[in-house]
Amino acid sequence: MWLFYLPIISFIIALFTAQAGVSGAFLLLPFQVSVLGFTTPAVSSTNLVYNLVAIPSGVYRYIKDRRMAWPVMLVIILGTLPGVFMGAVIRIVYLPDPRVFKLFVGCVLLYLGLRLLYSTFYPNVKLKELEKKFKERIEEIKKEQQKKLLLVCQQKQLLKQKR
User: Fold this and answer.
1) Neighbour tally for 129: CB within 10 Å
2) 146 to each of 60, 66, 68, 159, how far by Cα in Å?
3) Is the separation of the CB atoms in 48 and 80 below 8 Å?
4) Positive or negative CA dihedral for 116, 114, 47, 15?
5) How many whole angstroms separate alpha carbon 41 and alpha carbon 11?
6) What residues contact 47, with CB distance under 8 A and at least 6 apart?
7) Which of 58, 87, 91, 117 lies 20 to 30 Å from 148, alpha-carbon distance?
8) Taking the model in full, what pTM does it have?
9) How remote is the C-alpha of 88 from its chain's centroid?
10) What is the DSSP code (8-state) at residue 18?
11) What average pLDDT does this structure show over 16-22?
12) Residue 163 and residue 156: Cα distance in Å, rounded?
C-alpha cells in the first residue's frame, strides 16, 4: 500500500529540495525508515540511486543558468568520492542493526536541524563576508571565461577569413 505513495512522496521531496541544491535523499531516508519501516542496509543504496536520478537534472539546470562554481565543485568531489565508499562500508559493517542505524540517522538530522535553526536566528557575520567575497570571485571568473571564449571565437573567425 505504501509503495503506491512512494513516487508521490519522492516527487514532493525533489520539488522542494532541488530549489536548495540538494537531492532530497536525506528526507527520503527518514520517510523510508519511519513510515515504510524499511531499515535494512538496502535503504542506503536506494537513496544513492535516488541521488543518481535526482542530481543530474539539477546540475544541468545550474550549469545552464551559469550558476556552477566549478572550482568549489571540484574540491567537493575530491572529498565526496572517498566519503561515499567509506560511508557504504560503515553502513554495512558497523550500522547493520536497524535500531542503531535509526539512532545514528536521527542524531545526524537533529544536528543539522539545530544548526539550521541556530544560523537562522544568529547569522555568522564572517560567513556573510566570505559569501560576498565568494560571489565576487565567481563573477570575476565568469568574466574571465567570457573573455577567453570571445577570444577563441575571434580567432576562429580570423582563421576562416584567411582561408
Assistant:
1) 10
2) 19, 11, 14, 20
3) no
4) negative
5) 23
6) 25, 26, 28, 29, 32
7) 58
8) 0.51
9) 17
10) G
11) 71
12) 11
560576498: which residue's cell? 132
Return phi, psi of residue 122, to 5°: -130, 75
Please say whether the beta carbons of 38 and 32 come within 8 A: yes
Cell of 111: 544536528
Mean pLDDT score, 119-136: 82
Rg over CA atoms, the chain: 21
Measured N-to-C along each axis, helices 42-64 and 25-34 cross at an angle, to the nearest 10 degrees, of 150
Task: HSE, CB side, 13 Å, CA atoms: give it for residue 97.
Answer: 5
CA–CA distance, 117 with 99 (Å, rounded to integer):
27
Contacts of 91 (CB under 8 A, 6+ apart): 41, 44, 101
| Mean pLDDT to the nearest integer, 4-16 | 77
Cell numbers at 119, concatenated: 544560523
